[in-house]
Amino acid sequence: MKKGFAYMSFLVLLSACQLASFTARPGVVVKTFPESIYGKYQFIEKHKGYKDTHVISIGASGVVSNDPLVSGILAQNDSNNTLSHLGDFYYINVHHTDSLGKHAWFVYPLEFDHNNLYVYKLVLTKKSTKRMKRAGLELTGKESGEYTMDNQAFKSYCEKFMKRRDAIKFKRIQ
After folding, report:
1. CB neighbour list of residue 2: distance below 8 Å, 6 or more residues apart
2. Which one, of 52, 162, 151, lies nearest residue 118 by Cα?
3. Ramachandran assignment for 99, one of left (phi > 0), alpha (psi -120 to 50 degrees), beta (any other)
4. Residue 17's pLDDT is what?
5. pTM for the full predicted model
6. What is the β-pairing status of strands 21-22 and 146-148?
7. Which of 24, 26, 87, 99 is the most interior residue, by most CB within 10 Å?
8. 84-108: per-residue pLDDT in tens?
9. Among 129, 120, 145, 167, which Cα is nearest to 18's?
10. Cα separation of 95 and 115, whole Å?
11. How far is the C-alpha of 151 from the C-alpha of 158, rounded, in Å?
12. Beta partners for 97?
């Protein structure tokens, strides 16, 4: 029961609201995480009296997690996932194809310091939609929440509006 709760609550953390999608991935695709990020991290989730610990290990061989959802998003051996770099951020890019064959990229900006790993989700709200437009990102018009990827505008948006207090914060434990 607790494992099911943890899986569902982390899924809610990453996708509770409608997420922005993009026509392409940002930046330049890289094959591995940078060595300075290698280590073991944990995120302790607290919800209505429950506590659950999500642990991820990042190394030369990829990402290992105690949570299948986190592993699925971060796994670089999955052909639908890529890691890219642009400006101050790395980006976890998850390629999605719906039942009609429409392709989209869901992008999770990622940054780190010596002690923490910060993962952001690009949730569509009135505020974020205005900020994306102000940064120069344009809706495709095909579906609400899908933007045409413009590297410079996207970089500007992330560097200006991604605040660590809004991120899912994994603390380095090794």
Report:
1. 50, 52
2. 162
3. alpha
4. 67
5. 0.82
6. parallel
7. 26
8. 999 999 999 999 888 888 889 999 9
9. 145
10. 29
11. 11
12. 103
